[in-house]
Amino acid sequence: MIIREAITSDYAQLRQIYLHSRQESFHWANADEMTLEDFDRDTSEEEILVAESGDQILGFASLYVPDRFVHNLFVHPQAAGKGVGKQLLQQSIYRLGTPVTLKCVSDNHKALSFYKKQGWNAVVEEGEPEARYWVLVYE
Fold first, then answer.
1. Structure pTM?
2. Which residues form the N-acetyltransferase domain (predicted)?
3. Domains by residue range for the chain, with CATH
């Protein structure tokens, strides 16, 4: 597996990963309202790293570099549990420097557990009652 910057020809696979991962795991959101185009809107002005094996993209991270912020981290459901997220996160930290932050929906217990195992600290919970999220920091 290699981690590299995304290129335009990756976007079709990235859109699919983003859509299907959210439809499967974002139980708090309406899956019927999610579209392939959400990826383009939600990663605008961000640097995108991809994890790739052969010609298959296994996952991606999108980084908002000015704020040292990991905006998105998604792994293809078939590649889950194989170290893809960990490697993307490590490369994101390397690219951004520390401290680096991210936000994670409070109801996404699986992701919160993953980040904490990777050494991230939950600093504060924010947002409206129906849309709570944790701000996590890696220093």
1. 0.88
2. 1-139
3. 2-138 (3.40.630.30)
Query: What are the CB-based long-range contacts (under 8 Å, 24+) for 87-94?
Result: 87/1, 87/3, 87/51, 88/3, 88/49, 88/51, 88/59, 88/60, 88/61, 89/61, 89/115, 89/118, 91/3, 91/49, 91/61, 92/49, 92/61, 92/63, 93/138
Q: Is the pLDDT of residue 30 over 70?
A: no
pLDDT tens-digit readout, 69-98: 999 998 988 888 899 999 999 999 999 999
CA distance 91 to 94: 5
- The Cα 75–Cα 88 span in angstroms is 9
